[in-house]
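Sequence in, structure out.
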Amino acid sequence: MDKEKNTKAVSEENIYCLNGRVPVKKAIPFGLQHVLAMFVSNLAPVLIVCSAAFVRGSENHLSAAEITQLLQCAMFAAGIGTCLQLYPVWKIGSRLPIVMGVSFTFLGSLLMICTNPELGYEGMVGAVIAGGIFEGLVGMSAKYWKRLLTPVVSACVVIAIGLSLLSVGMDSWAVETEQKILERGIIFWSDFSHWLCVWLPVIC
């Protein structure tokens, strides 16, 4: 089957076709799946970075209102990026249904910058702008170097990203686990004792 041909007929077999038309009962769940996956991958890096970031020249963290604004900006920018992928402008975009979002790739580097009080959140934003320009230039010249990125290289990058996130997850788990276990234990025994008091006489 030619996956890039234009198909006018609506069929479930067209799910894996680029320009295929699928029934509404299949299109809606798949669309929602993409949206929900985008929400998690788009908001999690922003929350991780902004929760740890300092305001430059001080040891104050960003306020809840500022973090909320950044989350909204991240979703807005992801929407613009997704539209550019669907409807390219010049050489920007792939004309593919690619949902754009925030990348975990640079999380380790951004945390190192934003947790330095001398650089803070403002320094991180400057690094993102410079890095974005550089990455755009590298992407436009991909035809010259993409053959060098073998699966081994890609796998090493993914492993490095995962290892850099271990410390964040372990710190969060270690701080919150004891309190959560205590709270869940109290809730469980409260519900269990209530169940015994109400239903045990009825059962007996």
